[in-house]
Amino acid sequence: MSVIYGKVVSLIISERFGPVVEKIVSFLFKCQCSPLLYIKRGTELPLSKIKESLCVLIKYRLVNFKPNKNENLANYSLNVENVLLMLRYPYYLNHAKKLFGDQSEMIIEEVLQKGFCSASELIIKVFDKLCNNEERSLTLSQVKEKLVYLVTAKYLTRVPYAKEDKPVPLLTVDEKELTSLPNIDIKTLVMHRKDNSVELPDKNIYWTVNFDRFHQDMRDKIIVAAFNKKFDENAGEIIKIFLRQMYIRTDPWADVSNPVPALEVKDILRKQISASHSLAFFDQYINIISQETSSLLRKAGEASGGSYQIFLKEAFTQFAWELVEQIVLEKYDSKAARIFRLVKLKPYIEPDQLQQLAMIPAKDAKKLSYQLYEDNFLHIQELRKASANNGPVKNFTLFHIKLESVVRMLLETCYKTLFNTMTRCNHEKLQNKRIIDKKHRIDTILMGMKAQNATEEQMADIEDMITLPEKEILENISRIIKKFNTVELEIDQTIFMLQMFLVYQKVN
C-alpha cells in the first residue's frame, strides 16, 4: 500500500473521528498488525484513549483483531478497504431508497451511523423518526416488513459473535444465521416504547450493512449501462435478467456462471408488459450480444440446447481496456490513443513498426510512444540476439502493455486525485469557518423556534442576522463544496471499475 493511499485513509478518518483516532489509524496503516502496548509506544497516547478509539474502530468494522501467539493478547490490524468505503455511503443510501423506498433508506442510514444495531432497536428508531416526519399512518409492522426484506435480500447481515468465552474471542457466525431474523413481537416493541424497562428479546443479536451485496448491484449496474449505451435498453434488460437468473445457480462473484437457459429468460420477459419489443426480437438480441466484443454472454456448448454462460472476468477485462484507452485519449490526444490501441492489438511491437502502422510522423510517434512509456501506460521488453561467428550482439526493443500494472498505476492516480480534492475542500471550509459556524448556529436557533411555534416575523428577524454579502459567500461555498463532493463520487466510480478488474484477476 502506497504513501498516498495512507494519506487518503488518514484524511477520511480525521474528518469523521478526529485527530486521536486518526493517529492510531496512521500507526496501524504503517505497522499493519500490532498489539495494544506497541500502539501505545508508537502513538504516545494514553492507554484509555487508545482503548476507546479501538472500540470505536472495531464497532465500525475499520479494525480487526485476532489472538496473539499466547492467546491472551490481541493483535489489531486496520481494515483499509472499509475506510475507503465510507466515501461510498451516499451511494448505499441512494440505492436503498431507489429500490425499496424511504423506510429502507432510513434503516440503512441508522445502521451506517451506529456500525451495528439489533433488529428491534432499528424498527423502533426508524419508526420514531418517521413519526417525527409526520408520517402518522405508518405502523411498526410496515417498518418490520422492510427490515425483513433487507435481511432476506442480504443487504443487512448478522454481525459475528463469540461462541466461546476466551480472553481474545474468535468472532464467527453460521451461514444460516446470516439471513435469519429472530422472532420479533410487535406487542413487545409497543411496550418497550412506552416503558424502557421492558427488555427486547434480540438485544444481543446485531445486524450490519453487507457491502458486498451493494457492490454486486453496482457491478450489475455498470454491465447493464454498458449494453444500454452500446445497443439499447432492451439489450440491457435481457442482460439484467440473465444476471438475476445467474445468482440462482452460481456464486455472485464467480468469474464464469453456470449455464442459464435462454427459454427461462424469455419466459420472464413474456410476463413483463413493457418487454414486447425485446421479446419479439429476442433471438436477434441474443445473437448480437453473444458476438459482442466484451464476451459477457456465450453459448454454453453446442449440445446445451440454448443455454448461455456469463463471463464476468472477460467482460471487466474489456471494460478496463476501454477505460484505459479513454484515459489515454483525454490525457494526451487521439494520436497517443491510436498508438496505445496498436500496441494492444499487437502484444509486442517494435518502435519502427509502430511508427509505420500508426500512420503518424516518425518524430511524433516516437515522442508519444516514449511519453506513454514514461507514464507507465506502455512497457518495454528488450531482446538480445547474438550474431554468428561471435559478432556484435543485436538489441531489439519491443513495446507491450501490462494491463494489470497499468490499472494499479491508475488506481494510485485516483487516490492522489481524491486526496487533492478532499484537501482542497477542507481548505475552503477552513477559510470560511466563521461564516459556516454562524450559519449552523442560526439554523439551530430557527429549528428550536420552529419547535416552539414561533411567528414568521420572529423567524425572519433571526434569518436577517446573516447579511446579503454573507449569503452570497455561503452560496458560493455551498456550490464549491457540492462540486468537490460530486468529483469525489465520480473518482470513486472509477476506482470501483478498476478494482472490479483486479478482483476478477484474483479469482483464479
Automatic annotation (TrEMBL):
Residues 8-65 form the RNA polymerase III subunit RPC82-related helix-turn-helix domain. Residues 112-317 form the RNA polymerase III Rpc82 C -terminal domain. Residues 324-401 form the DNA-directed RNA polymerase III subunit RPC3 winged-helix domain. One of its GO terms (cellular component) is RNA polymerase III complex. Keywords: DNA-directed RNA polymerase, Nucleus, Transcription. It is found in: Nucleus. GO terms for biological process: DNA-templated transcription. GO terms for molecular function: single-stranded DNA binding. It holds the Pfam family HTH_9. Gene3D superfamilies: 6.10.140.1450, Winged helix-like DNA-binding domain superfamily/Winged helix DNA-binding domain. Belongs to the eukaryotic RPC3/POLR3C RNA polymerase subunit family. Component of the RNA polymerase III (Pol III) complex consisting of 17 subunits. DNA-dependent RNA polymerase catalyzes the transcription of DNA into RNA using the four ribonucleoside triphosphates as substrates. Specific core component of RNA polymerase III which synthesizes small RNAs, such as 5S rRNA and tRNAs. This is DNA-directed RNA polymerase III subunit RPC3. The lineage of its organism: Eukaryota, Metazoa, Ecdysozoa, Arthropoda, Hexapoda. The gene is LOC115874536.
